[in-house]
Amino acid sequence: MAVDWNAANAAHLYRRAGFGATPKQIGQALAQGFEKTLADLLKPDKPLPKPPKKMLSDIYRLQTWWLDRMVKSQHPLAHRLTLFWHNHFATSNAKVQDLAAMQAQVKLLHDSALGDFGELVLAISRDPAMLVWLDNAQNFADSINENYARELMELFTTGVLDQGGQPNYSEADVVAVARAFTGWTLQDGEFHFDHTLHDHGLKTFKGQTANFDGTDIVALLADDPASARRLAMKLWSYFAYPVALDDPLLDGIAQAYVDAGHGIAPMVEAIFRHDAFWSETARRALVKGPAEFLAGSLRLLGAKVRKDHSYEVGGALQAMGQSLYGPPSVFGWDEGLAWVATSGLLERAATAESVADARGKYSPWTFKPAKLLGKKKDWPALDAAGVVARLLEATDLPEASAATVSALQSYVAADDDGNPQPVVVDAAFIDKKARGLVALILSSPEYQMA
User: Fold this and answer.
1) Are the C-beta atoms of residues 283 and 446 closer than 8 Å to each other?
2) Cβ(412)–Cβ(437) under 8 Å?
3) What is the pLDDT of residues 12-21, one digit of tens each?
4) Could you state, in order of their start, the residue ranges of all structural domains in the chain?
């Protein structure tokens, strides 16, 4: 498909491949064209640096550091994919109890985000946090633990059933895989293969018999067409809209994986080039996750995280339902409407108000709304409609519904009692009405959709 490269489509791409784009970024994307914009997005990011040691002393500090990286990154796709992999290989510090190991895993996910899937699965199989999380550090020839073997297939690669509803593996395969991973353990907090604890006997896995070890199993699973299709389904559902495993549109995405020899970047590129990605079905079809919501809001507003308020920053993520480094189970977070069910939308509104109202050193954020309204010399010409239009554009919501626009304009042109008042855009107006308007926009149902 030849993409009609306009502002709406550029915004759609950045909303999915990153955390949204400012009007300036949209203008730059239009100037350089679709091909260059996509190529830039797909470039691997630099390796994730180590956080300062003090950030590893408290999970709220580490969450704040990671969020700050999302806000500031010039390679947003790598960070969006890091969130994807964090949910795919869901590992929680609640059991691991080692923030340094958890951060090392996040670095692995970030640095491998667009690389080779087989290599990523092999690396995650040797990852210290994963070895603790799914108990493979206690998987020995004379005392087999099947936890990692089971989740490796059920959650990380093939899935339980294929697109026709047939099993992808048997209980005997689970035992064989567990035997292959015996002796993959830890020594001084690092991966260590202990050959004395490994089962060196013949193992039969999916009809093949050999003296398999974990490396062999990962290679077989990475080559399995079921892994290609399931990963295609998960990536499409993350970047475009939810689909079932048997949806024909996944054929080309899975084939891109095969053609590239387990390549992740070619799959993602195939998604962003697919006709259906640009269809109306895909527009504003996904509920933003809490980290995506907060990082995107801060990026669009030009706001910043105050690292000396990590408890409030981490607390906001937790209240909205996504405590980074702490997925609720091996299945990760429930996404989609689950993000805003029960109290989720209320907590987002509270976070939106906190960001919009950020003033001074006692706030967990810094935010100056004046620049969102353009040059000061142009303020006197702005009426309620102009103010609302400027802020909707700034927050990547220029297509807000007529009802939403009308309600926002009424808010701007009313006093505290709801009575009409003249709109005079000055410092006092910006400090009160503009901040209030930002909070309302970020809390609106439309803004929750990417």
Assistant:
1) no
2) yes
3) 999 999 999 9
4) 49-282, 290-366, 369-448
